[in-house]
Amino acid sequence: MIVELLQTQPILWIGLAALLGLLIGSFLNVVIHRLPKMMEAEWADQCAELRSETVPAKPAYNLWAPRSACPGCGHEITALENIPVLSWLILRGKCSACHAAISARYPMIELLTAVLSAAVAWKFGLSVLALGGLLFVWALIALAFIDFDTTLLPDSITLPLLWLGLLFNLGGHFTTLQSAVIGAMAGYLVLWAVYWLFRLATGKEGMGFGDFKLLAAIGAWLGWELLPVTILLSSVVGALVGVAMIALVKHDRRVPIPFGPYLAGGGLVALLFGADVTGLYLAQF
Fold it and tell me: Whose CA is closest to 133, among 109, 170, 160, 161?
């Protein structure tokens, strides 16, 4: 009954997807903040073990524990203070206990996730494609912001995303399995080749290995046919932003600019409009 209603009333499905996006966006804020810290703690423990040192017991710190708290005063965020976007507005962007400012980036990520989730629901309707598209979009949002903050693209997200894309396309949902496999290989090898050509020419590393894996994951989901659109969009936007940062805000050229957010943005555009963009381009010839 509910499925039939959502199929006959697409606006309800889009609204439901947006609401789900708000909730997932709240969780993605936790992932973006905590996952890099969890990785650093794991690396520190591994280094201690290699030095034959005893790793001290630590309080649980993962995506579920401890509860979110104000970094200023330690006030634990209650359920009513954790309603996506609404709580931030009611609290006027401040902690209810110490009135320290709460970054506007938190509701921004929640809204971004809601908007993109609604866009996926609009594009694919109530279908298996929409389910896969939502998972793909949510992972890209997390990866984009983690890379922006830390210049890291965690294997714990990129590799499952890659394999999930291949698994999803076993049924030929976004593309054929053959195209997905070729897309995964081509996505990795294209940036791997660029990395080594740049390194041989300059003696420097132009990008990280996480970028290879991210583009491979995008290829696994969308197929090799949409990789040119993804690479073109991400490269053009990345170059424009890089030049603007150097010219306008005097960004130090020696400080790397993460490429992951641009790859993620290219992948999102390719998911929603890639076939249309490719068709318009090919129509010129």
Answer: 161
Tens of pLDDT, residues 178-206: 999 999 999 999 999 999 998 898 888 87
User: 259: helix, coil or strand?
Assistant: coil
pLDDT one-digit tens code per residue, 72-83: 888 899 888 999
Tell me the Cα Rg of the chain: 21
> In this structure, are residues 116 and 91 in contact, taking their beta carbons and an 8 Å threshold?
no
In whole angstroms, give the CA distance from residue 238 to residue 61. Answer: 34
Closest CA to 232 of 240, 244, 220, 243: 240
**CA distances (Å), 26 to each of 94, 141, 206, 244, 247, in order?**
17, 12, 33, 31, 35
How far is residue 31's CA from residue 38's CA, in Å, rounded to a whole number?
10
Q: pTM of the full predicted structure?
A: 0.93
User: Which tokens sit at 205?
Assistant: 């590393």
Tell me how far apart the alpha carbons of residues 272 and 141 are, in angstroms, rounded to a whole number. Answer: 15
Give me the amino acid identity at 146: I
Residue type, 254: R
Beta bridge partners of 94: 101
∠ Cα 104 109 110 (to 5°)? 100
